Fold this sequence. Notes:
Elements: H1 2-29, H2 39-49, H3 62-78, E1 83-85, E2 100-102, H4 103-110, H5 114-127, E3 131-135, H6 141-149, E4 154-159, H7 162-174, E5 180-184, H8 187-193, E6 203-206, H9 212-222, E7 231-235, H10 241-252, E8 258-261, E9 265-269, E10 277-280
Parallel strand pairs: 3-4, 3-6, 4-5, 6-7, 8-10
Antiparallel strand pairs: 1-2, 7-9, 8-9
Helix pairs in contact: 2-5, 3-5, 3-6, 5-6, 8-9, 9-10
Amino acid sequence: xxxxxxxxxxxxxxxxxFQLKSYLKFLWxxxxxxxxxxxxxxxxxxxxFYDKKSKPDPSGSEQAKQYQVLKNYRNxxxxxxxxxxxxxxxAGSKVFKSNTRPIAKIAKTAGISRKRAELLFRIxxxxxxxxxxxxxxxxGLATSALALGNAKAKITTLEGCPNTMAIAKNQLxxxxxxxxxxxxxxxxxxxxxxxxxPRDFRLIYFDGxxxxxxxxxxxxxxxPTITNDSVWIFDDIHWSSGMEKSWKTIQNxxxxxxxxxxxxxxxxxxxxxxxxxxxxxxx
Length: 283
């Protein structure tokens, strides 16, 4: 038992050191909108990433109201004292030692942060994707942001754990978010089985198995769905050396033209009219 504890501490320390080194490299390379010369990316950064209306204001704007919904959604999860048994098909957790996990702690440590939920809302609102695929529902924090960003979108969300999916489904229904289709499935199995060629997912949010092999598998399986307007968002691209390798592979793919590294996310575009260019942006 003592040896296991020592191993866990060393593992977590190495993980923290890796994350720190990755973040320092990111800060060294990162720029703001003043260093962006692509009109497409400049407009995205200034009108979406750095949107001046991004903070809730007393004017009662629609965006402020939606931010409050996201806040209420999160708070309800943080107040949930129940525990669930989680089936983890991904790369594992660096926080939880057991598969029996408190819902509140999942929301606090494993779910998307408030700031990123608001940014995801803005991205969905900015691009207005009519079809969205989310790989990794978890408790639905990101799902709610995507859905509120465009209430007319048809969202397909995938989750491997039925207990986690049940919480997300119940939460989304409580908040009258009804534009989501739920699929409890193993990601690769789903993506391999369904007919991808006729499908057009305007936006795909990858937040499932954070491993190099799985990420590249999903990338390749979904390539037949791309259009000139596709937007793909990869979560935790600096989570591990494997994820950083997969991000580099994706950046170098011939069908990828523009990528944006925000440290937490890697955002990918396939716009044929754009020159191949990679941006590192502080958000």
